[in-house]
Structures are given as structure tokens and as C-alpha cells.
Amino acid sequence: MAARWLLLLLLGLAVAGVVRGQGGAPDTSGFISIDCGLPEKTSYVDDATKLKFTSDDAFTDAGTIHNVSSAFATPTTTTDRSLYNVRSFPAGARNCYTVPSVVPGSKYLVRAKFMYGNYDGLNKPPVFDLHLGVNFWQTVTVPSADWLGNAEVIAVVPDDFLQVCLVNTGAGTPFISGLDLRPLPSSLYAPANATQGLVLLDRRNFGASGSTVIRYPDDTYDRVWWPWSNPPAEWSDISTADKVQNTIAPVFDVPSVVMQTAITTRNSSIPIQFSWDTKPNHVYPDPGSIFTLYVTELELLAGNAVRQFNVTINGVIWTKAPYKPVYLSTDAMYNGDRPYRGITRYNFSLNAAGSSTLPPILNAAEAFSVISTADLATDAQDVSAITAIKAKYQVKNWTGDPCAPKTLAWDGLTCSYAISTPPRITGVNMSYAGLSGDISSYFANLKEIKNLDLSHNNLTGSIPNVISQLQFLAVLDLTGNQLNGSIPSGLLKRSQDGSLTLRYGNNPNLCSNSSSCQLPQKKSNSMLAVYVAVPVVVIGAVAVFLIFFIRKKKNKSKGTVKPQILGNGVQSHGQNGTGGSLLELHNRQFTYKDLAVITNNFQRVLGKGGFGPVYDGFLKDGTHVAVKLRDESSSQGYSEFLTEKTLTKIHHKNLVALIGYCKDEKHLALVYEHMSEGTLEDKLRGKDRKGRSLTWRQRLRIVLESAQGLEYLHKACSPRFVHRDVKSSNILLNANLEAKVADFGLTTAFKCDGDTHVSTVRVVGTYGYLAPEYATALQVSEKIDIYSFGVVLLEVITGQPSIIKLPEPTTIIQWTRQRLARGNIEGVVDVNMPNDRYDINCIWKVADVALKCTAQAPGQRPTMTDVVTQLKECLELEETSFKGDTSSSYMTESSIDPNSSYNTYTTEMS
Ligand SMILES: *[C@@H]1O[C@H](CO)[C@@H](O)[C@H](O)[C@H]1NC(C)=O
Ligand SMILES: *[C@@H]1O[C@H](CO)[C@@H](O)[C@H](O)[C@H]1NC(C)=O
Ligand SMILES: *[C@@H]1O[C@H](CO)[C@@H](O)[C@H](O)[C@H]1NC(C)=O
Ligand SMILES: *[C@@H]1O[C@H](CO)[C@@H](O)[C@H](O)[C@H]1NC(C)=O
Ligand SMILES: *[C@@H]1O[C@H](CO)[C@@H](O)[C@H](O)[C@H]1NC(C)=O
Ligand SMILES: *[C@@H]1O[C@H](CO)[C@@H](O)[C@H](O)[C@H]1NC(C)=O
Ligand SMILES: *[C@@H]1O[C@H](CO)[C@@H](O)[C@H](O)[C@H]1NC(C)=O
Ligand SMILES: *[C@@H]1O[C@H](CO)[C@@H](O)[C@H](O)[C@H]1NC(C)=O
User: Fold this and answer.
1) Which residue among 59, 180, 537, 723 is the one 20 to 30 A from 706 at the CA level?
2) Catalytic: which of 725, 755, 785, 830?
3) Angle between helices 696-715 and 782-798 (to 10 degrees)
């Protein structure tokens, strides 16, 4: 009898059978359990698993919710209450759930659950497709109203969010009852990688009695292990109370309770036989199949008893040598590297072989179909721009990925598709779309756009200047709107030289001749002045722009057991008792409890930042960390977590490394590497200076390293990244006095030069370091960091704070300029600096760089790359003039890599 992959869910009945593990329940961090169709903002704890299920409201903005017919919402159908309600999607070809805050590049088990339950009273079970992001997952064929369906896929998630989409294929309205996400270690299910996913066909626990279903907490990953329904008469169950060792846990991790039961046959002349059918569909007419059989010996064999067997599939031998199970130690046979194709029914037969006196044995098995997950989502920058445009104009039926798959691209978009690079948006046609309000400046972020048609809407305001920076723009149609002001000269110029077709007729208030136009009244700056007038640190935006980074980790898992080939592609693991090393957690997410342990109950406060208090702590492996805990009082910013995909990739040796984060119920925290020597500010002026001031060469290295960190933010990131709060207290030093820039996670990615959406931007930064154009007009560019960094350079030279409290508060810039104007360099140099070891020319040079950086006009300031070059030259000068100087005792010579400023990020951003 063939097993069906979508089988009766006996979740409710499972309660009775679940054997609870010893001790506390396993870790559920990263588990996401969604009850689709539950009224918004409600949640409950599931009786069987004690897992918390929440409403799907936060994960989708489409569809309508329904209760299933009362005839099916009863324990006789199922006790899984998440199936008692559904969300259905009568409108639109594709509707999606977006789950934020997943860890990019890590492996997840994703499970969708279905019970039609005649929720619409039509008694018409539908057929529809499921997509995982932009890749086809499987077709869901609902056979009946009481059918309890499960679709499960194991896949690597590329982004910091995951989308699951239901696609209407014209055979009924798609619906869904539940959606579960469970993180998996990357070493498990090795065939699931960045380009290949595993769709579950079947997962069985042989020899389990009647209705016993094993899942969380017995299975720490909350996989569901089903008993075989209607076992044939030849099978007999055996079991043991003893725990089964799992030496192959890093590769195959089957719960001991599953392995403790098995089937054999009455005697050795009777084989174990069963079969599996594949599920061909319109995308995969001949799906590739991967099978895994899990075996262990459960009986302590007497003297001359032997149990060994061969496995055949459709009569063809699978195991070359007769296989002998090991007593109470899990082993696995599988064809992970070579999915089988060309067969729709796989007949398995386990036959006692050679001198076996005992029948074969089988404890558990899994069967998967492989799918491709190689299709790429649209370019992230295009996605964020078009998403902002969608939100501004409230386009309802733009769902899922904008360009992919091709057949489901958003209405009005044209995209370009290339092999192995993400699709790009090349055209937006929103003519006759009833748009009102002004033209979003996010259009200027669609860097590859060629055609932009906004004709015949009700758009008002002026044409954003930034549109003229779109270098590929060939057609711009603004006909028939209510636009005013003048046409940006850049657009006119391109229209005149023929590179742009510009249409703007039927805009009564728009004039094409800029001199005769009355400019629209400029927004008064008085409101902005309020922000600027706030005298101290302006940290308001911190909560809003709370963005977390996860340091992209290398897979260091060394515990992977080298497979031992048994034959015909069947592999076996762990016979040699290779006591697998502990799995490395892929997702460095901490619970609040972990943090309490790490910080010894939040005992030692290191300081207080804009985000909240910072605690001292140690990880289990001894790593010294700083834990920044967010004030519980600020509730904003929750949804901004882990949203900027690009930010997760930022790491550089001169940026403070984020080790992990915590996102518990109420607690938000960042775990950083600990920087034992504190801040540059404290080193220059702090109480704990301990009498010893930094030498000039140490100062020079510190600013050079910080500049390299900032250069990386400015140049290596896409979109570009502006720190916005560069200051000496955000430059941290480690035990080797190596400098790393901190707190860049609390600002936001830089969208575009001309973004005039002042209302969404607030001043982040510190008085004394704010560039004039940022303080007065909120203009954001890398140049504001250059300005602030110039202030830091002056601090390093003079040892003075950014605002010097003379009788009248003066900025360090004014103070230095006045003295240098008189040629008095000695008069500005920090009196605490050991004066025997510096080259005055070098100090002049740095002062010169600092003054250029703090130029009023942003255009006159150098780039961070220029600054790095200058500082490097200066350091070289310093080092050649003082060869053999060993006085800088705790400085490591290797801390400056002569090639670092460019090479580090080109390799790290691969
Ligand atoms: C579903 O049933 C519950 C009570 O059983 C009720 O409170 C809720 O309003 C119903 N929802 C819908 C969408 O009908
Ligand atoms: C999306 O909405 C637009 C405008 O309301 C409509 O013209 C278009 O047909 C819709 N597309 C789909 C796929 O529903
Ligand atoms: C994923 O596995 C398949 C099958 O083993 C292989 O062909 C493919 O190259 C792998 N992809 C990646 C990104 O490693
Ligand atoms: C095994 O069982 C079959 C059927 O019950 C029987 O015919 C056969 O003699 C048995 N063989 C042995 C070796 O006991
Ligand atoms: C598989 O077994 C069934 C009977 O259980 C048989 O009808 C079928 O022909 C077998 N298929 C193959 C390919 O051996
Ligand atoms: C099992 O495999 C061995 C080694 O290939 C072979 O000699 C034996 O005949 C096989 N037994 C069965 C029952 O297929
Ligand atoms: C945009 O779509 C309209 C029809 O809705 C069409 O007339 C127009 O030519 C399209 N614009 C471009 C630039 O393709
Ligand atoms: C366009 O907007 C104006 C001002 O908001 C409004 O009075 C007018 O009715 C709108 N016209 C259309 C066609 O939507």
C-alpha cells in the first residue's frame, strides 16, 4: 500500500501519544507559529506542544478570514484548533505571507497546514499552488472538506524575510489554515542548500502504536513523525525502553523516541516491504526523490544470532553489502547526492541476507522530492524602492516579489531578467491608476528604469529633481496631471539632446520655461530649526531606525561526519561512533534568559547609550561581550527589526562586530564584542585615563582605522550607508588599541541624495558634530560623516571636546581655526600628549585634513577614501622618522594592513 504524503493529520490525537522528554522543553527561539484566520492580535498556547500560535494578521494584508463549518470544528475531525479557521484569497493571482526577521542564509523547515472545512459553504475543495518566495513549492490538491493537509519544505532562506505565496491557478480559491517556521542547523538535511529545497513526501516512525504522533518537544525541530497506517500483517512491532545513541546527530538527528520503536517480520524468510509514490505536478512532471531509512538494532543479540539484510528498490539492489544494524545506535541509509528520477512508484524491500538468522528491521524513514530554489528575487534596492512607491500610492494588488516569477510580475512593471543576477525593474507604467499626492522620490531609486509612465493621474507638487539622475531613463510621461513648478533643468537638457522622451502636456500649472515660472514656495526652515535647537544629543530616531545586524558567519561546523559509502550511492553514517561535535547555532539569537546568564543577571553596567544600558558579559565559550539592552519603555521600532537585508552583510575589522541579538517578547538587545579599552573620548579626556595619554602615533592609527571603517560604510555597502553619529565616544578600542566604529546599527541606510521626505527623517547625531547642511536642512549624504570625522580629528590633535566651554561655548573648529590662522600649531596640540615623539609636519597635515573635512560646503569636503590616503601617508611619515621606536608598548604592528582600505571589503562583501 502506497504511503500518501498528505495524510490524515492526527495532531489532536497525538496528545495522548507524545512521550515528553526529560527536563525542560527544548529551545523554541526562532519558532514562528501562525494560525491563519485567527482574529487579529490574538494568540493562544497549543495544548499539545505548548507552542504559542499567533494570528496571521501581521504577516499579510490580503485575504479574508473565515471559520470552518461547525461540522468540522470538532475534536472528532481534529483537535488542532489552528485548523478551525482559515484565511482565503478570493482576489488576485498571488497572495503572500511575509515573515520578517529570519536569518539570511540559514535553513528552515516551513510547513503550511490546510483544512478546507467548507468554510465558504460552497463545498468545492480547491486546487492551487504554493510558492516559497519566487520558487514553486508544490501544488495543493484538496480532496475533501475534512482532509487535513500538510505541506512541508526544507530550504535555505536567502533574505532576512521569508515569503510564502498562494497562487490561484483557476481551480478554486486558495486558502490556508496555518503556517509554521522552524529553524534547522545547516548541517541537517544536507541536500537542502541555497539552490535546492526538499519537499516532504513522507516521514514515518515505524512500530509506533496506533495513533502516536511524535513532534515537538520530543523532536526539537518540531518535525512530525507519523506511524504507518494499516501496517501489513507480516510486520511485527518491537521496541525498547533504552535510549538510542545518535552519534550522527549533526547530519541526521532522529529523536530517540522515534528510534526506540521498529518493525521486523515474523521470521527471516519474510521481507519488510512497502512503497512510496511520487507526486508529479505541472512544474515537476518527474520529481527527483531522496529517501532515508533510519535503522538501529533494538535487541541485544544472543551468541550466534545474526541480523543482516539487503535493501532493494523495485527489485534493484540498493545496499551492496549486507547491512548489520548497530545496537542502540542510529544509522542512516540514503541517496542524498543523487535523487532518483523516472519512476513514479518505489517498492522497497528489506531482505535478510547471507547468514542472517533474524528478519530485517526498520525504525524510521523519510522521503523527499527535490525542488529548485535557484530563482532569484528582484534586486533588493529595486524592491525597497517599489515597495515604498506601492505604500505611498496604496496599490492593493502588488503582492509578492515585483518581477519574479515572470508570470506573476506586478501589473504595470517591466523587468529585465538575466541568468544568475537578480531581475531588475526597467519600466513602471502607472498611467490611469488614480494616483494622487506628489511624485515619490523613490522612483529615483529604481536605478535601471528606462520607462516611467505616470500619465493621466492626479499627481500634484513639483517634479523631483532627482528623477534627472536616472541615467537610463528614456521615456518619462507625466501627461495629464496637476503638477506645478518648473521642469528640472536636467530633464530639459536630456530632452533637448534627444536622450529622453519627455511628455508633460495637460499639466495646467507646470511651466517648461524656468525663468517665467514662479517657484513653489519653499518649505520654511523654521520647523526644522526646532530640531536643531535641541541642545544635547538628539537620539529620537534611534527607536525608529532600530535596525539589527547579524554578522554573517562562516560555517565552521567541523563535526560533519564523513559519509561511508555502502554502495550504489547509499551512505551510512556514524558506525564508528564519531561522537559528533555540538552543532553550531547558526542563528545567533539569544533569549532573555541567555542574556541573564551571559551578564550574570545584568550585574555590571558598562555605560548607557541612546539605545539603553550596556552590560558586561561573557558567552559560554569565554568570549567577552557587551550587551546593549533596549529600554523597555520604548515600544517603537519593533517592526524595523532585521529589515535591511544589506545591513546584515556589513562587517569589517574596524566596525564593532555584532555577535548576536535577542528578540524576546518584550526584550530587544544587541550583543557586541567587548572593547576592553573603552572609547576614544575616554582615552583623550575621560576620568579613567590613568595619567597615561595616547601618543601621537597611537592617535594616528586610531583615526586611520576608524576612517577605514567609515570608508567601508560609505563605499562597500549598497545602498550606501551613512553613520550619522560619528564622534569620539562612538570609536571603541580593544586591548590592542585597535579602533572600531560603533553604533552604526542605529542609523538608517542612505536612500538617495535628493530625498526630500523630510517628515520621515529626524536628526540623529550629536551637537558639536553635526554638519551644517544636516542640522539646518536635514540633507543627508556621506559628507555629514566626513564633517563629524573632521571634528574627531581635531579632538585627537587638541585633546579638546567638540564644544569648548570657554567663557562662551565655542566649537572646536572655530577654536582651532583661530589659532591656526595665526600659524600657531603648537598652541593647539594636546598638552597631555607625550611630546617627544611626534613630527610637527604630520600634525599640520592632519589638521589640514580636519579643516577640509569641516568645510561648510559639503562639496568641498574630501571623501573618506581621500582621508584614509592622507592619514596613511602621515602614518608612514611618522613611522619612517621614528624607526625603532618601541615606546608605544601596547600597539601591535600588524594592526594596520597597508592594503586594507580597499581589499578588505572587496573580499568580505563577496
Ligand atoms: C469564528 O467563531 C468565533 C467563535 O467561535 C467568533 O467569535 C468569530 O467571530 C468567528 N469568526 C468569523 C470570521 O466568523
Ligand atoms: C490590479 O489592479 C488594477 C487597478 O485596480 C487592475 O487594473 C488590474 O487588473 C489588477 N490586477 C490583478 C491581477 O488583479
Ligand atoms: C545544491 O545541491 C545540488 C545537488 O547536490 C548541487 O547540484 C548544487 O550545486 C548545490 N547548490 C549549491 C549552491 O551548493
Ligand atoms: C517463516 O514463516 C513462514 C510463514 O509463516 C513459514 O512458512 C516458514 O517455514 C518460516 N521459516 C522459518 C525459517 O521459520
Ligand atoms: C511494486 O509493487 C506492486 C505491488 O505491491 C507491484 O504491482 C508493482 O509492479 C511493483 N512495481 C515495481 C516497479 O516493481
Ligand atoms: C545481499 O547482498 C549480497 C552481497 O552483494 C549478495 O551476495 C546477496 O545475494 C544479497 N542478498 C539478497 C537477498 O539479495
Ligand atoms: C502604459 O499603459 C498604457 C495603457 O494602460 C499604454 O497606453 C501606454 O502606452 C503605456 N506606457 C508605456 C510607456 O508603455
Ligand atoms: C484631484 O485632486 C484634487 C485635489 O485633491 C481633487 O479636488 C480632485 O477631485 C481630484 N480629481 C480626481 C479626478 O481624482
Assistant:
1) 537
2) 725
3) 180
Architecture of domain 566-673: 2-Layer Sandwich (3.30)
User: CA separation (Å) from 325 to 84, 320, 328, 361?
Assistant: 44, 15, 9, 8
Cβ(345) – ligand 5 distance below 6 Å: yes
Which atom of ligand 3 is the closest one to the Cα of 196?
1
pLDDT tops 60 at residue 337:
yes
Taking the domains of the chain in order of start, what are their residue ranges? 17-184, 380-510, 525-550, 566-673, 693-905
65 lines ligand 1 (CB under 6 A): yes
pLDDT, tens only, 565-576: 333 334 333 333
273 C-beta closer than 6 A to ligand 5: no
> In whole angstroms, how large is the CA radius of gyration of the chain?
32
Pocket test of ligand 5: the residue of 1, 272, 275, 340 to mutate, having most ligand atoms within 8 Å of its CB, is 275
CA distances to 466, 514, 565, 711 from 754, rounded to whole Å, are 6, 20, 61, 21
User: What digits encode the pLDDT tens for the residues 216-235?
Assistant: 999 999 999 999 988 999 99
Domain topology for 693-905: Transferase(Phosphotransferase); domain 1 (1.10.510)
Total-model pTM: 0.61
546 touches 631 (CB < 8 A): no
Q: Which CATH architecture has domain 17-184?
A: Sandwich (2.60)
Is ligand 4 within 6 A of the CB of residue 269? yes
**Superfamily for the 380-510 domain:** Ribonuclease Inhibitor (3.80.10.10)
Residue 453 among the catalytic residues: no
Ligand 2 atom nearest residue 397's Cα = 1
